[in-house]
Structure prediction request, 218 residues.
Amino acid sequence: MSTFQNQMSQSPAVFNLLIANTVAYLATMLLSSDTLYGLFALFPIESPFFKIWQPVTYMFLHGGFSHLFFNMFALWMFGRGLEQEMGTKRFLIYYFVCGVGAALAQIGMAEIDIANTNSMSELMAYLCTPTVGASGAVFGLLLAFGMLHPNATIMLLIPPIPMKAKWFVVVYGVIELLLIVFSPNDGIAHFAHLGGMFFGWLLLLWWQRRDRQRNYYY
Prediction:
């Protein structure tokens, strides 16, 4: 068995997610992207485009090749080890909880923006602007890696310096908070990123507590 086949057999969820996201991206290139975004991207609840399944399906759509590439690179980089450590079932639960949690955070922020706007043009922009991407779920994976392996060393790309995983997660979280404050209209769903991390943190804490209780009673 080749190294690639061995990795696929050990991390089937990661490879299937990579394939699903790539196929979805190709579909937006080959078919009507407006139709696909209108059906499967995430819109505010008040939007005429909102559908109940969008908090799940938006994770598989991306706004461009670079958006897809960096999300899938992070999924491949961190997801394989986490899936082997958690097990495929628990990994998938975690991934989708983070992704849906990110969607709920984004919807909640959109509700606040809509409630506070007095401009019809701004209101229409909020209602008609979709959110896409697996970033919320990926940020949840970053958090899990940092919590489970806090002292593991990660080599940053820009700048190329080593950093412990726990500080890597903290730095990313702080950057997202700063961008919310100083660059709120940059077109990036920073609240979704933090939402993915927050829901992932809650789920990991719940699993750790439940596992400790099981081990205690056994």
